[in-house]
Design a protein that fits this description.
The protein is mostly helical and 80 residues long. Helix content is 75%, strand content 0%.
């Protein structure tokens, strides 16, 4: 795996756990209803933002990382 792929795989669990924790706190302390679809979107966006903020150069946009991850993965594999 490339450095970028390793970074992505390192960020995903952290973004997932952090997002679940934050959403749980919103539900408990602000009486927000659990919204699984919104939570999934938050995880994807948070992971994309963290990846873009990393010192590694990431050519893909945040939108591509969130909505077109399969295409980004293809480009990473094929050097594009």
């Amino acid at each position: 795996m490339s450095k970028l792929e390793k970074k992505i795989w390192m960020v995903i669990p952290l973004a997932t756990l952090w997002s679940i924790w934050r959403h749980r706190n919103e539900c408990v302390f602000n009486e927000i209803q659990l919204d699984f679809e919104a939570l999934c979107e938050i995880v994807k966006v948070r992971a994309a933002l963290w990846i873009k903020a990393s010192p590694l150069h990431v050519a893909a946009s945040i939108t591509d990382l969130v909505y077109n991850l399969q295409q980004v993965k293809f480009c990473l594999r094929n050097g594009g």
